[in-house]
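> forwarded from #structure-qc
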């Protein structure tokens, strides 16, 4: 008998339901449970990355194999994967084109600190897709954001970085902040790490043009670092006119605009910026760009490139290198990454595949909206491109403060645990659903069935 079909004498709480789902998970995943106990003997937080401990079952499943939009664990359970490595797997697992390119390059050398001919094709394609002419590769989007910030400070001579409350831009120190009681505070138990964040960061609410104008009026902000719409604090759509105001104010105040498309590349072949005609000074992407091989990229406009070259010339024939710049890494732009990036751009993240991905996201979002409306629940669904999110609040939030005030973390955790027991993976940090080219309409229909039964679980327990 499943937790969804049990009838209690007394109404259950969400905590009771979560306990049941976690117990069900433990009973049906003995090999993963044993592996987790073994991992705690050798890893600081139980697994190779401390983020892997955050799955709602109480411990992560241990993956045995993954293909397309599905993962099989060591206990033999199959999952529809809507997490897709929190976007790192947006190309799908083991896509043939990426695997073929990776194997070919592995046989020809992975890291030489020399460019390959693939890089010429990739550079031209990045220019075509994203509109910015000059690019640099890093090993992660975090490193790309750090490089972009460093360039902004070099060019402007200013120290501060403005971010929006509730943002996430990887391990960038300047972005580890949010508004707490009207002033700068640290996000999510992050230690300040010896950094005086009031000296290096400004933070305002997303979609707040008045606050943005005031924050940039002091002429001490080198750059605004933002996603086109917020995705890491729950999806926060952009308000009408906000991007136009953001671009006008940054230009008027001499502030560079860095747009981080690491998640919003799911909007289309050229990301949200290309789809909506945005004009960043620097554009950052990562995660999916090399098919799951660690990679980040940033591109700069012609103006920014020329301003940087005035400080550090592209070529100095009198020395072996022009400058260290504080940007890079030995493995940045390695031949393996470049080869898989070419395969992604040429054969996987194509317009045709995006059409399928976005169609499935629309199908999932519409089905979820219908189920919510039928049950009269005060929830909403947001969809942008190939990504959709269910949030347990009546309307899409306008900013981080509204997320903090209304978010139902308890329901999110319960949904994640129930979904894992029913063979669906959703990124543990969000209730977002991402499509890959291999996601099928049957996968989407399966989600609708499980979502209906999740609501049935809540109704039977008297929770909603």
């Amino acid at each position: 008998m499943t937790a969804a079909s049990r009838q209690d004498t007394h109404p259950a709480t969400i905590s009771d339901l979560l306990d049941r789902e976690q117990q069900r998970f433990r009973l049906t995943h003995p090999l993963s449970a044993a592996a987790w106990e073994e991992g705690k003997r050798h890893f600081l937080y139980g697994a190779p990355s401390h983020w892997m401990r955050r799955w709602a079952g109480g411990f992560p499943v241990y993956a045995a194999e993954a293909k397309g939009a599905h993962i099989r664990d060591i206990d033999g359970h199959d999952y529809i994967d809507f997490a897709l490595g929190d976007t790192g797997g947006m190309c799908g697992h083991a896509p043939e084109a990426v695997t073929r390119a990776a194997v070919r390059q592995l046989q020809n050398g992975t890291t030489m600190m020399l460019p390959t001919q693939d890089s010429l094709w990739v550079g031209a394609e990045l220019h075509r897709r994203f509109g910015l002419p000059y690019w640099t590769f890093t090993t992660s989007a975090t490193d790309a954001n750090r490089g972009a910030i460093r360039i902004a400070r070099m060019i402007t001579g200013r120290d501060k970085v403005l971010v929006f409350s509730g943002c996430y831009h990887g391990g960038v120190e300047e972005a580890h902040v949010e508004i707490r009681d009207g002033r700068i505070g640290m996000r999510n138990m992050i230690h300040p790490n010896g950094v005086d964040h009031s000296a290096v960061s400004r933070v305002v609410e997303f979609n707040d043009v008045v606050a943005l104008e005031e924050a940039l009026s002091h002429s001490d902000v080198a750059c605004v670092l933002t996603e086109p719409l917020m995705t890491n604090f729950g999806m926060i759509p952009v308000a009408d006119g906000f991007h136009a105001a953001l671009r006008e104010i940054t230009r008027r105040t001499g502030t560079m605009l860095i747009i981080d498309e690491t998640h919003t590349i799911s909007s289309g072949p050229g990301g949200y910026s290309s789809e909506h005609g945005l004009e960043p000074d620097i554009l950052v992407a990562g995660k999916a760009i090399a098919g799951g091989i660690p990679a980040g990229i940033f591109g700069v406009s012609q103006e920014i490139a020329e301003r940087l070259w005035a400080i550090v010339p592209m070529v100095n024939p009198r020395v072996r290198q022009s400058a260290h710049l504080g940007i890079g890494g030995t493995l940045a732009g390695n031949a393996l990454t470049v080869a898989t990036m070419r395969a992604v751009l040429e054969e996987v993240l194509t317009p045709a595949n995006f059409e399928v991905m976005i169609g499935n996201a629309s199908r999932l979002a519409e089905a979820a909206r219908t189920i919510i409306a039928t049950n009269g629940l005060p929830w909403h669904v947001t969809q942008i491109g190939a990504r959709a999110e269910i949030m347990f609040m009546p309307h899409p939030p306008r900013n981080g403060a509204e997320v903090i005030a209304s978010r139902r973390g308890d329901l999110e955790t319960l949904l994640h645990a129930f979904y894992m027991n029913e063979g669906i993976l959703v990124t543990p940090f969000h209730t977002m659903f991402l499509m890959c080219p291999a996601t099928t309409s049957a996968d989407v229909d399966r989600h609708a069935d499980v979502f209906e039964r999740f609501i049935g679980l809540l109704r039977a327990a008297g929770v909603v």
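QC bot note: The first helix runs from residue 14 to 28. Confidence is low (pLDDT under 50) at residues 1-9.
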